[in-house]
Amino acid sequence: MNRFWRGRRIPLSWLLLTRQPFRLLVALAGISFAGILMFMQLGFRDGLFDASVTAHRLFDADVVLISPRSASSVSMEAFPRRRLVQTLADPDVDGVTQVHWGLMLWRNPETRRNRSILALGFNPDDPFFVDPSLAEKTDALKQKGRILFDQLSRPEFGPIADWYRDGRVVETEIAGNRVRVAGLVSLGTSFGADGNLLTSTETFLDLMPQKPPGAIEVGLVRLKPGADPQQVVSRLSQRLPKDVLVLTKQGFIDFEQNYWKSSTSIGFIFTLGAAMGFVVGCVIVYQVLYTDVSDHLPEYATLMAMGYRLSHLLGVVVREGFYLAVMGYVPAYLAGQGLYSFVRDATKLPVGMDFSRALTVLVMILVMCMLSSLLAMRRLIDADPAEIF
Amino acid sequence: MATVVVDNLSHAFGQGEMRREVLQNISFSIEPGEVVLLTGPSGCGKTTLLTLIGALRTVQQGQVSVLGQALHGAGRRRRQQVRRCIGMIFQGHNLLRCLTAEQNVQMGADLLPGLSYRARRDEARQWLRAVGLEDHMAKVPHDLSGGQKQRVAIARALAATPRLLLADEPTAALDSRTGREVVELLRRLAREQSCAVLMVTHDPRIVDVADRLLQMEDGRLMNAV
Ligand SMILES: Nc1ncnc2c1ncn2[C@@H]1O[C@H](COP(=O)(O)OP(=O)(O)OP(=O)(O)O)[C@@H](O)[C@H]1O
Ligand SMILES: [Mg+2]
């Protein structure tokens, strides 16, 4: 207690900041703007990369087989179905199922325009879905020509979800074949797909008659409890011929995200965007703090002349930077959340505030503010106090 | 031991062509408790001399020692410690605009080691009473008159219990009556603390408060009366 009283001081940083409330507000607006910029750029980037794997996350599998010629979810190549059956020889494998995966041309029933949609075909008797409510809906697919439509698809596919909810029979054409919507699911759009539909293997093959028989795009393998997927993957990779690529589920997700991150300019652009947000933020914050410190420089020089240590004054300024960062962060956080929900509504992208991003931006703002305040103090470090009065 | 010893001190501003000698071969000393007045025409180098003694400027040539500490070539830490023992009253009062009178004085008292917050605050209040500002403790500098601000600056300088007080025209902004009051107050309080004083002034009416008068002209010390 005694120590506390001895250590207590006049809250100089706070008083310096709040002497001119209007100026403080302007400074906070600048810092918040920088924060919002970073929230937006990082949010878009993460949201888009997250969205690129919604379909991949659907399946409850431990090991995934794809063709080594597949580059991404929008260009899935086929491999022999035999390879999937061969995995059953492994003692750790519990069961397997196949998924057909490809882009089809969907006709908008209202405007009659065609647009490409991502279609997944699987066995409705044996769905490997993580989400149990999805598994219930697959019963409707046992009838031929029925599909489940993703209600988060872009509106260019037509007002399918609205019509369906109104109780209408919604029918349209895919590659000249009539299909009927038998239910709605919520998946979401991604870089490659503006919309999604789920259907049975049989219907899928009807819609794509040119596909060679016995060829599949994705093989799903479920392991016995306690088995190590990593070990099974390396075992299967050795045993199976090179016309198939064996991945863990996470490996399958990484495969897709890596494609967008490194093989296209999209990843680069968004990383650059986030970096720009940081740089612009730094410039704004530095400007704000530099004028603030310059304005108070004579007062800091006075304190130095009185015999205060330089480290004490740096402490005062760093604390100023800290207060500014925290006060500027709160509105940035709130605005970020508002903008995310706005973007979610407008683009159907899964953009949201998550803890690690909130923390990243907070740390970046803190670093920006405290570094800039220290940089702005350089003049005091270099100069004799007498030069500043 | 003398509080201040200045020996053969010279100082110049600028480089090369622009170089101008402002102080030339200045030597004098101040004993503990002495009140010394420094006068001279404008631009003769008084403020420069004061800032050199106050360790606010790097000594270029000659020796300055304050309270036994040599300043020529002294590092940042040493100079900070010397400043700790010196009270400064500036030409412009240099109060912190964001602090009240009481808080400004407490910034001086805060330099005292080992005192609790409350003790330091009481110290500040006592000094404000000593300069006759007990009714204006909660005012910020903006709301104080010139004389009041100068008195706050005196209280702040004295609150750190300095052993040397450097005052640069503390009466410049004041009318002659207030100026006289302020200087007399300064001398009385410094005497009570047995603190040496070096005061720059243009004002011929306050010369009689000094023990000694130093006269400067064009960077040189004319006579030590
Ligand atoms: N930072 C500086 N750079 C260059 N020249 C300076 C600087 N500071 C002061 N001078 C010059 O040094 C000379 C002495 O200045 P100083 O401030 O010491 O005078 P002074 O005696 O205090 O004058 P006054 O009575 O007007 O306050 C002046 O000619 C001034 O122009
Ligand atoms: Mg001067």
How would you describe this protein?
- In chain A, helix 3 runs antiparallel to helix 11, helix 3 (21-51) crosses helix 12 (310-347) and helix 12 packs antiparallel against helix 13 (355-376).
- With 389 residues, chain A is an alpha+beta fold.
- Residues 1-5 of chain A have low confidence and may be disordered.
- Chain A has helices spanning 2-7, 12-18, 21-51, 54-58, 82-86, 132-137, 160-165, 201-207, 229-239, 249-262, 265-306, 310-347, 355-376, 378-382, 385-388; strands spanning 63-66, 79-80, 93-107, 114-122, 146-150, 171-174, 177-185, 196-200, 215-216, 218-223, 245-248.
- In chain A, the strands form two sheets. A nine-stranded mixed β-sheet of chain A has the order 6-7-5-8-4-3-10-1-11. In chain A, strands 2-9 form a two-stranded antiparallel ribbon.
- Chain A is elongated and about 90 Å long.
- Chain A has 15 helices and eleven strands.
- In chain A, a hairpin with a 6-residue loop joins strand 3 and strand 4 (114-122).
- The two termini of chain A are 39 Å apart.
- The longest helix of chain A is centred in the last third of the chain and has 42 residues, at 265-306.
- Chain A has two domains: 11-51 and 266-388, no CATH class; 68-243, no CATH class.
- In chain B, the strands form two sheets. In chain B, strands 6-7-8-3-9-10 form a six-stranded mixed β-sheet, with helices on both faces.
- Chain B has a domain at 94-154.
- The model of chain B has no long low-confidence stretch (mean pLDDT 89).
- Helix content of chain B is 32%, strand content 26%.
- Chain B is built from six helices and ten strands; from the N terminus they run βββαββαβαααβαβββ.
- With 225 residues, chain B is an alpha/beta fold.
- The A-B interface holds A 2, 5-6, 8-10, 12, 15-16, 18-19, 298-299, 302-310, 384-387, 389 and B 51, 54, 56-58, 76, 80-81, 83-86, 88, 90, 92, 94, 96-99, 103, 106-108, 110-111, 114-118, 156, 160.
- The structure holds adenosine-5'-triphosphate (ATP) and magnesium ion.
- Magnesium ion binds at residues 46-47, 91, 168 of chain B.
